[in-house]
Amino acid sequence: MEEVPVLFAGGGLVGLSTAMFLAQHGIASLAVERLIGGSPVPRAAFFHMRTIEMFRSARIEEQVKAQSDKEFEPEGAVVLMDTLAGKQLAGLIPSLNEGVEALSPCRRLFVTQPGLEPILRNRAKEAGASVIEGHEVVGLSQDADGVTVTVREVASGRDQTMRAKYVIGTDGAHSRVRELLGIEFDGRGVFSNAITIYFHAPLAKYVVGKALSVIYVKNAELSGFFRMDKDGNSGFLVVNTVGDTSRPEAASPANDVRESHLIDLVRAGAGVPDLPVTIDGVARWRATSDVARRFRKGRVFLAGDAAHLMPPNGGFGGNTGIHDGHNLAWKLALVLKGVAGPALLETYETERRPVGKFTVEQAYTRYVTRSATYLGAKDFHPLANDFDIEVGYLYQSPAIVTDENLDRGHEDPRESQGRAGSRAPHLWIEHDRKKISTLDLFGRAFALLAPSGGEAWIPAALAAAREFPGLELDAHIIEDGRFAPAYGLTDTGATLVRPDGFVAWRATRIENDPAGAIRNTLRAVLMRP
Questions:
Q1: Of 124, 158, 205, 501, which cross-links 20 as Cys (Cβ 3.0–4.6 Å)?
Q2: How far apart are the first and last CA of the chain?
Q3: Residue 40 pLDDT > 80, yes or no?
Q4: What are the beta bridge partners of residue 31?
Q5: Catalytic residue among 198, 216, 348, 367
Q6: With contact defined as beta carbons under 8 Å apart, do 149 and 283 qualify?
Q7: Active-site annotation holds for 216
Q8: CATH code for 392-525?
Q9: Contact residues for 247 (Cβ-Cβ < 8 A; gap 6+)
Q10: CB-side exposure of 503: number of CA atoms within 13 Å?
Q11: Which fold, 187-288?
Q12: For residue 58, what are the CA distances in angstroms to 54, 326, 500?
């Protein structure tokens, strides 16, 4: 059997993104995907600025933006209305991208998965990834050197075996990989059986020109939310409850998915009783807030919905899964290349499981306070700012070198100032005669950044990196006077940023042995004895 470095069970949004990130680091992979041709319905997804930053690093940001512009209005508010044609009850978020400019070179956007996935697939394939459609992973057997994977062709039922150094389960909420590993979820279980209705209907006069991104609706017939396409004549309606919420069955719209009933629900949400409606599809889904007890077992990892499940409020699910893959990709790459020790892979769960749990709780808070107030839930966490969730999470693991004792897993990213464990701050700078973001300096290699007074760090960093064969490290002097305070440094300090854009270590000022300090940091982060 020919062995691949990494095999994905699932070639959807998270699997393709992670394959693309691996390809950035020169690692080939194989994704095994059950569906042929991608999602059969035009599922739309809300992508946060941090996710777009990752796409920017992978050089697909402009393609994704162009696809988004074809499909949706780029900006807009999030509001609560009684119906699309009715009155506004509350304003939830005044603008989709309010305040984003101060934190990122990227902007939040919507794009359908059928529009995005071909971009991800093509970019991954360009760099050596492969996808097998119409197949699924049905068996795993691990040994000291790799994983033997049983793959079944869906149409014929014929099995074949494949071999991989590592396997990543990106096969969704009903993950076969998680089941094969015997890993259970912790959480609240199912608290509603909701549906998403994909439809065409002439609603342009009610939405076009109003700069609305997401429209929550709440009336006697239903509660849920609309996301409309750019032309205002197609989109989807998520239905969380139907009718009298004092009745238990109100929380299970999935009980009745007859086409006539779906049409009635779209009309009730729109507030237009005689609205012509064509149903394009319907997806049943269960509202849950669960986190897998483990994100790894041996050489097999879980990412995305296979690792954590959350309500759709805030659009955190897909983004969190993509961030899982981004965290894991560079670590797998360095271990496979022999640059890092295998223990580096243990930090995937250490870093990502707390983030997954925090994000699940924030999605649950939004669900029970916006979409399902009828539950009367009291077990939700205080509402955190969206920025804290998108770019404010803090990693604490052996792959972060710091003397700070943090008592929190997230904070306002405007206050992090480049502390170790935080996502490195964005700052527009002039570099090599070009205007770039500091984030553009990260992606494939480690990066050592120092202000103009820290020139001694540059040769020290390059000398230290040479002691780790195969390690890529870039070193930059940033002459912009705003850089040092933005990164919490003096004029002679330095910061070391990991390939995923998170600060691994910083020295606020020059040290007596800068090469030794960097060497010790790299040895710790790479888990090298």
A1: 124
A2: 33
A3: no
A4: 8, 131
A5: 216
A6: no
A7: yes
A8: 3.40.30.120
A9: none
A10: 29
A11: D-Amino Acid Oxidase; Chain A, domain 2 (3.30.9)
A12: 6, 11, 11
